[in-house]
Write a structure and sequence with these properties.
Blueprint lengths: L1 E6 L6 H11 L1 E6 L10 E4 L5 H10 L1 H9 L4 E4 L1 H4 L4 E2 L14 E5 L7 E6 L1 E2 L14 E6 L1 E6 L4 E7 L2 E9 L2 E4 L7 H14 L7
Parallel strand pairs: 1-2, 1-3, 3-4, 4-13, 5-6
Antiparallel strand pairs: 6-10, 7-9, 8-11, 11-12, 12-13
């Protein structure tokens, strides 16, 4: 059984993602601080709410997160967790630099109705291990007002459309993955994403 760390950023429903990872076949553990010497196979960075609030915790753990990434362990960012993987966000302060796994910036979605909340389908535009076995057009559950609108197209695997605006919602680069929606709230399609993530876990530097 894969052992997955869930970083408690102080925002979001950790019980929900923990329960979904268990359903997918993992042994999740919620941690407020990462101990690299512990036995684990992957890391999930979840979050709902303020970028600045979550940034404080991620910044505290930055060196440990970077070490995990450099050693090949899979990392999955969910919603705000994905946004923290970019260079920064308009929601935060200029000094609050993200992890920089993906190049670009998170910006407020330029539409009339926010937050973007509810079910939307995704358009898969390139082969993606995190989306393996998922039907194009699968529906996912979203709750957000910001998204990575400044991004490297090579990192984007799937898009969604809201109020006429098309923007990326799945990112992948090596052992780093991020989704703007909530797989833990997206029924079987979301469970498949978590199962795909777990299949990648367990190899450390050999991933």
């Amino acid at each position: 059984m894969k052992k997955i760390l869930i970083l408690d950023c102080g925002v979001g429903n950790l019980a929900s993602i923990s329960a979904s990872l268990k359903k997918a076949g993992a042994e999740p553990r919620i941690v407020s601080s990462i101990i690299l010497e512990e036995d684990f196979d992957g890391l999930v960075i979840p979050g709902v709410g303020s970028y600045s609030a979550a940034f404080e915790k991620v910044d505290e753990e930055r060196e440990r997160i970077m070490s995990i990434a450099e050693n090949g362990y899979p990392i999955l960012g969910i919603c705000l967790g994905l946004q923290l993987m970019f260079n920064g966000s308009e929601e935060g302060k200029p000094s609050e630099k993200g992890l920089g796994f993906f190049r670009g910036l998170v910006k407020r979605i330029p539409v009339r109705r926010l937050p973007h909340m509810g079910w939307n389908n995704i358009e898969i535009v390139r082969k993606s291990v995190i989306l393996n076995g998922l039907a194009n057009g699968a529906y996912m559950y979203f709750v957000h007002s910001y998204a990575p609108l400044d991004y490297d197209a090579e990192d984007a695997s799937a898009f969604t459309s809201y109020e006429g605006l098309k923007f990326p919602v799945v990112f992948e680069k090596g052992n780093i993955f991020g989704v703007q929606f909530h797989p833990e709230k997206s029924w079987q399609a979301g469970l498949r994403i978590l199962e795909n993530f777990l299949r990648l876990c367990g190899g450390g530097a050999s991933v």
